[in-house]
Design goal:
The protein contains five helices and four strands. The chain has 120 residues and is α+β, with helices and mostly antiparallel strands. The chain has a single domain, classed as Glutaredoxin (3-Layer(aba) Sandwich). Pfam families: ArsD (PF06953).
Amino acid sequence: MTTIQVFDPALCCSTGVCGVEVDQQLVTFAADIKWLEQQGTKVERFNLAQQPLAFAENPVVKGFLERSGQEGLPLILVNGDVALAGRYPRRAELARWAGISQFAVSAQPANTCKPGSGCC
C-alpha cells in the first residue's frame, strides 16, 4: 500500500482551511486528500507549527529543511521518498503516486457523485 506524507509549512490549523482568509489552493488540496483516502490510500499530514517533532525526527525531511528551509515547504513524500516540494500536488499527481486509474481522477469528487446518480 502506498503511503503519502505531507509536510506542511506552519498553518493555523491541521489543514490550513481556517481563519478569515482561506487559501483556495488549500481547500482544493484538502478535498483531494479526502478523495485519495476514500480510494484507500494512506495519507499522513504534518503541520510544522503543530508537529515540529515529525519534521525533526524524519531524516529525509530534516535534511530537506537544512538545505531549503521552511520556504521550500510543502514537502510530499511517497513511501518515504521525496516526490514534490514547494507546491501542493494536483489530484492527478496524487492518483499517479497511489496507482489510481485515470478514470477515477476524471470522475466527479467522490463526496458529490454517487453510483446511479447520473453524474458519473
